[in-house]
Design goal:
The complex is a heterodimer. Chain A is an alpha/beta fold. In chain A, 34% of the residues lie in helices and 26% in strands. In chain A, strands 6-7-8-3-9-10 form a 6-stranded mixed β-sheet, sandwiched between helices. A 6-stranded mixed β-sheet of chain A has the order 20-21-22-17-23-24, with helices on both faces. Chain B is α/β, with parallel strands linked by helices. Chain B folds into 2 domains: 24-49 and 179-372, no CATH class; 56-157, abc type-2 transporter like fold, CATH 3.40.1710.10. Helices cover 65% and strands 6% of the residues of chain B. The chains are: A alpha/beta, B alpha/beta.
């Protein structure tokens, strides 16, 4: 451990009681963070990031091990530690019924900032966050991105030596995310602050000086992200051609021995091979001799996937799915038609003139930040919420008149999974089967099918509330498929689950689409947009662009930036829209 | 910024109290519990609920009208306690009782006038609907009373001495008009302060946990006692406001006499409020969701204050085990103080022991809160 470390954790362990189970949130975690840089605490939900943050802030007592912050023991001297650090909890710690200025005043009082110094500090913070025009606005009326920046400003009213940020970017739009990172960079360079930031977004790891990879309470690896990434060089390939569509290519490669990861990305399949495997040989074994192979630079996520794969079971679940579609009729006809759809809440248009079409067997994505209107659009499509204006036809039925009939032909998986936590897996399945009028033998068969296809047999009698997140998600999807719907709506299905579970989930979605099920999915993960056949980018209730992922990315292509990412395209579209608004 | 120039506890407490007041002012649910609920309860108990029987519908059956029987029944009809309905036969009156049109039947037999002159006297049959036990007892009592005074009047008119060995001379002290409103409305002060002190406080603390703001407060230099004190001060002021509103309306709108000293009332109310706040804060250390905190606060503070404090139901007529339970009900002590201060005056033999009990309970609950709230999330 370095002598200059601002935070040193040694053998930290912490467990919690959750129902009947004891959950080991942290299990022998040791690392240290250097002054003057950003250290990223990277891991999926349930990895133990928040527990670690709270231990560092002296809010929890470890079961074993020690954590030293700024030369003080965070457990023994918690008051002294709290006086020296800044901590922004996940929900920003803002009082929604207080204005921006009142929130700042409160935290300035609590931090003991002398009144004479406040105005200068506020000015500086407001300049940094761009909140100056909103000083009088109630915090509850700010957008997600602005709340996040105000939360940060509140923890910065007195410049702390160490700043702890617990998932500051979750659910925040990409533009705000970029701005937040700019602020953090400025704090580190300008004020010499040290930052510990936790995130579930793997692409943010690349912005950190050092990362600590957490998985199920243990440190998988730590070091500069470049070092972790470089380990993967020579193992990443773009596969294309062989006269096949990218999704078929992926299917042929995914789960084969020697393949660490195979993802659809744009026009090609991004292949990550085992350290020992030879990519050419792999393609040959897969019967893809004439496929084109092009080396790609590694990404941080590749090393994470590689580490996770090394840990555990090979998983090939969900590659094929039987018994999903009601009738495998011809692909290509329009099954969802939305025309100028609008929905108002009070004087606020949550969805403001949205039009698109989805064809049978297509995977259609709605991409946007929290509050863009994705979930509202979804609820209207499922007949759960009446539209204020516009027309929408689902499976050939007008939802205004035949909502119940249409509902029988669609499956819906909501953001929070909508499972009965105190019912077992089988009981949940039985309930949803009955809700869709399945009884007797048909129901028994369907339950057996779900347990088999979603590999849930081992958990059949367990309460669904006690399942790990990835399994909850599988169960929720199984419940939505009990009645063999033609169309499946998935609302933010993958938020918070680890990258492996996410891959498995997309494999199932692909299999469903191949079987003729139309899939609509909302997401705020930019890279997930790449897995869709077509997508619409939404912001502030409007669709900014619709098309194939490659076409959307092409919108952001410039001479200086010939290979823009989906995030680049998104930011460009949103900013372009904002410019138009201002001009109008 | 140098650490030496940092503001201290006074600045932190000031910030916390200011924040609480801003939240109270902006949060409609605080306003509702602190001011709308009290008004609603006052109007309900001041105008709506009354434990006095008034205009009880009574069926009068006179089988053979005579001068005596008509005179007796007329005396009943003249009383404001009764709303008479004349029935020709007992069967008709019984039907009316069954249908709920009347609450009692007064039945005068055909031989009433004749037997009145015999030494063993004339029986008058009274049938009372006993479903509502309270009204039944009152109706029964009123008929007996009316019968007694009618006999007395009749005797004096005829210059005879009434042949009863002993006479009951009634004097009603403290509430001579025997208006239930006069003891219900002062008791409401206790109910309303329980709402503000325990329910509202437990809810707002739980809300801080629910919205994640508590976590942010905990990592500031503010100590747990400062955070608690901030809440205590703000809701103490709000509770005092609720008390003043209720006492003011009781005295000026409902004309309940305040015979004791206002300042004694103020002091006792402050003690009670501290204890109620202590309970609210204790609940919030147990329950961190608004739903659970609300449930516990209603079951542990509001309902007992309503039912077991002597606010409506007399404690002395409760069965012994229930009476035992009332000793741990905070509101019990305060209800007897307010009822005494309002209606009887500064009776120190009642006020002091009850005030002592309040002080003790305030100390216990605030002590528990102090010990239980550590600056930790567990």
């Amino acid at each position: 451990m370095s002598a200059g470390a601002v935070l040193t954790a040694t053998g930290l362990a912490k467990s919690f009681q959750a129902g009947k189970r004891r959950v080991q949130a942290l299990d022998g975690v040791s690392f240290s963070i250097e002054p003057g840089v950003v250290t990223g605490l990277i891991g999926p939900d349930g990895a133990g990031k928040t527990t670690l943050m709270r231990l560092a802030a002296g809010l929890l007592t470890p079961d074993a091990g020690t954590i030293e912050v700024l030369g003080l023991d965070a457990t023994q001297d918690s008051l002294a530690v709290q006086a020296a650090l800044g901590y922004m909890p996940q929900r920003f710690g803002l009082y929604e019924d207080l204005s921006v200025r009142e929130n700042l005043d409160l935290y300035a009082d609590l931090q003991g900032v002398p009144r004479a110094e406040r105005q200068a500090r506020y000015d500086e913070l407001m300049r940094m966050t761009g909140l100056a025009p909103f000083m009088g606005r109630l915090a509850g009326r700010l957008s997600g991105g602005m709340k996040q920046k105000l939360g940060l400003a509140c923890t910065l009213v007195r410049a702390p030596r160490l700043l702890l940020l617990d998932e500051p970017t979750v659910g925040v739009d990409p533009v705000s995310r970029r701005e937040l990172w700019a602020i953090i960079d400025r704090l580190i360079r300008g004020e010499g602050m040290s930052v510990l930031l936790s995130t579930a977004y793997l692409d943010e790891a690349e912005r950190c000086a050092v990362v600590v990879l957490l998985h199920e309470g243990r440190v998988l690896d730590q070091g500069p992200p470049q070092a972790l990434r470089e380990r993967m060089s020579g193992r990443i390939w773009a596969v294309s051609g062989a006269g096949r569509r990218h999704r078929d290519l992926q299917l042929a490669l995914d789960g084969r021995p020697g393949v660490v990861d195979a993802l659809v990305q744009g026009e090609h399949v991004r292949l990550v091979t085992d350290a020992a495997a030879d990519a050419r040989g792999l393609l040959r074994d897969a019967g893809l001799t004439d496929a084109r192979l092009m080396p790609l630079p590694p990404r941080f996520e590749d090393s994470f996937i590689d580490l996770l794969r090394a840990l555990g079971e090979p998983d090939t679940a969900g590659l094929e799915m039987d018994g999903v579609a009601q009738d495998a009729s011809e692909n290509g006809d329009t099954v969802i038609q939305v025309d100028n759809l609008r929905r108002r809440f009070g004087d606020f248009w949550a969805v403001d003139g949205v039009s698109f079409e989805v064809r049978r067997g297509e995977i259609f994505g709605l991409l946007g930040a929290n509050g863009a209107g994705k979930s509202t659009t979804f609820r209207m499509l499922c007949g759960l919420l009446p539209a204020s204006a516009g027309s929408l036809r689902v499976a050939g039925l007008d939802l205004r008149h035949a909502a119940a009939e249409a509902r029988a032909r669609i499956g819906y998986m909501s953001q929070k999974f909508s499972l009965y936590g105190n019912l077992s897996v089988t009981q949940n399945l039985a309930f949803f089967a009955s809700a869709y009028n399945l009884a007797g033998k048909a129901r028994t068969e369907r339950i057996a099918w779900a347990l088999r296809e979603f590999v849930l047999s081992a958990y059949a009698e367990q309460l669904s509330g006690e399942l790990p997140l990835g399994y909850k998600q599988r169960l929720a999807m199984a419940c939505a498929l009990m009645h063999r719907p033609e169309i499946l709506f998935l609302d933010e299905p993958t938020s918070g689950i680890d990258p492996l579970a996410r891959r498995e989930f997309w494999r199932r979605i692909n299999a469903l689409a191949r079987a003729g099920v139309t899939v609509l999915v909302t997401t705020h993960f930019m890279e997930e947009a790449e897995y869709c056949d077509r997508l619409a980018i939404m912001a502030a209730g409007k669709i900014l662009a619709t098309g194939e992922p490659a076409a959307i990315k092409a919108l952001a292509r410039t001479l200086a930036h010939p290979e823009p990412s989906m995030e680049d395209a998104f930011i460009r579209l949103v900013e372009g829209d904002a410019v138009q608004e201002r001009a109008a | 910024m140098m650490a030496s120039r940092r503001g201290g506890p006074a600045m932190r407490l000031g910030g916390l109290v200011r924040k609480e007041f801003l939240q109270i002012v902006r949060d409609p649910s605080s306003i509702a519990i602190a001011f709308v609920m009290p008004l609603f309860l006052l109007i309900l108990f001041g105008y709506g609920v009354s434990l006095d029987a008034d205009h009880v519908p009574v069926a009068l059956v006179d089988e053979a009208p005579s001068a005596d029987s008509t005179d007796f029944l007329a005396s009943l009809a003249a009383s404001h306690y009764f709303a008479p309905v004349h029935a020709r036969t007992v069967t008709e009156a019984e039907a009316a009782l069954r249908d709920g049109r009347v609450n009692a039947i007064v039945h005068v037999r055909a031989n009433f006038a004749e037997r009145l002159r015999r030494p063993d006297g004339a029986p008058v049959q009274v049938i009372v609907n006993g479903v509502d036990a309270n009204t039944a007892r009152l109706a029964q009592g009123y008929v007996e009373g009316a019968w007694g005074s009618w006999l007395a009047r009749r005797a004096t008119e005829r210059g005879q001495a009434l042949t009863t060995p002993a006479r009951l001379e009634q004097r009603i002290w403290y509430n001579p008009e025997v208006k239930s409103r006069h003891y219900l409305v002062p008791g409401l002060v206790a109910i309303i302060m329980t709402l503000i002190g325990a329910l509202l406080t437990a809810l707002v603390m739980a809300r801080e946990w629910e919205r994640g703001t508590m976590e942010a407060l905990l990592v500031t230099p503010a100590s747990m006692s400062e955070i608690l004190l901030g809440k205590l001060i703000a809701y103490f002021v709000l509770g005092t406001g609720g008390m003043l509103l209720t006492v003011g309306l009781a005295v000026f709108l409902f004309h309940v006499p305040l015979r004791g000293s206002f300042w004694v009332l103020w002091a006792c109310a402050s003690l009670f409020l501290l204890a109620a706040l202590g309970m609210g804060l204790t609940i919030s250390t147990l329950a961190r969701s608004q739903f659970v905190a609300g449930q516990i606060a209603i079951i542990a503070t509001f309902l007992p204050a309503f039912l077991l404090s002597g606010f409506i139901f007399d404690i002395d007529s409760m069965p012994a085990p229930v009476r035992g339970v009332t000793h741990v009900i905070l509101a019990r002590y305060f209800v007897s103080i307010v009822q005494t201060l309002f209606l009887a005056g500064d009776v120190w033999s009642v006020v002091l022991p009850n005030a002592l009990a309040l002080a003790l309970m305030a100390a216990v609950f605030l002590g528990i809160t102090w010990r239980k709230s550590r600056k930790r999330l567990e």
